[in-house]
Structures are given as structure tokens and as C-alpha cells.
Amino acid sequence: ANLSAEPGLTLAASTGNRARCLHLVTIMKRTHRFRTAQHGMTLIEILVVLVLIGIVLGIVGGNFIGRGEKAKADAAKIEIGQIGQALDLYKLETGRYPSSSDGLQALVTAPGGASNWNGPYWKKSQIPKDPWGNDYRYTSPGQKGAYDILSLGADGKEGGEGANKDIASSD
């Protein structure tokens, strides 16, 4: 007779092999029990892993979310400074800053009645929008200087705190 412990495994039943065969079957049963006990993870283990992943993502993600808005505010400050330099060059050549009605477009196209206009004073054909997609506000004379350039921040409305805070040339 053949003893089969697993499909494909056939052992001859002789007096000498019988003890080995029973020993082999016992080992295979133990191994099978051990393997079935190790399949998968418990619900608690899965929940612990998910909580740890959530904590790590919260810490890492929280650091990057605030940086995006700060980077936009920094970009707006830099761009306002560049527009201010173009306005100073405009004044140097024409003797005055563009009026509020002429606006920043006077840096690109000559306003009516501007003498000595040798522009464009801005390299691109249009004055850029702020990092949030809104137009910069320009007034001349300004409240805090010869002119004011203002970005209304993330919300596009006057005032605000944090990301919604206005950014002005006088800051």
C-alpha cells in the first residue's frame, strides 16, 4: 500500500520506511498548522498600521500645506517689487508715475499724452496677475508713497489674515 501525505508524494509502506513515513506526516501537519496560523493580519494590527500611516501623513502633509500659501505671498512681494522698479524707470523717463486711470498698463503701452515714453517698461506684453490670478491694484498717488501696488491675497478681498492677507508695495 502507498501512504500519501500530500498529493504527488508517495512512500512505499515497508517495515523500515513506516516509522519515517509517520514522522514525515507528523512534521507536515505541524508545518501546515503553523502556515495557516501565519496567514494574514488581525484587524487590530491593520488598524494600528493605518493609524501610524495617518499620523505620519498628518505631520508631513501639515508642513507642506502652509508652505504653498507662504510661497505665493513671497512671489507676490517679489513681483510687486519688480513692478515698482519698472514704475521708477517710467518716472525717470517721463517725469511722473502713471496716473491711477492709466494703470499699470502704461508700462506696456504708451498712455495718451505721455511725453518721452520709451517703453515698454515691462518685458511681457501684459502686466502679470498676482499668484492667485487676480489683477494687482495700482493707485497713484498712493496713501503711503508715490504709488501703491496691492495684491488682495488668496481671497481676492480687502483685508484678511494669514493667506488672505493683503500684500502691498509699502510692506
Elements, N to C (H/E): EEHHEEE
* Rg, Cα atoms, Å: 38 Å
* Helix share, percent: 40-55%
Overall pLDDT: 79
* Strand proportion: 5-15%
Helices, by number, come to: 2
Number of strands: 5
Uncertain runs are 1-6, 8-14
Give the neighbour order of strands across the main sheet. 3-4-5
Please give a structural write-up:
- It is a single chain.
- The protein contains 2 helices and 5 strands, in the order ββααβββ.
- It has helices spanning 15-38, 43-94; strands at residues 2-6, 9-12, 137-139, 148-151, 167-168.
- It is rod-shaped.
- Residues 1-6 and 8-14 have low confidence and may be disordered.
Question: What's this, in brief?
Answer:
By secondary structure, this protein is mainly alpha-helical.
Features:
single chain, 5 strands, two-stranded antiparallel sheet, three-stranded antiparallel sheet, disordered N terminus, mainly alpha, 171 residues, 11% strand, 44% helix
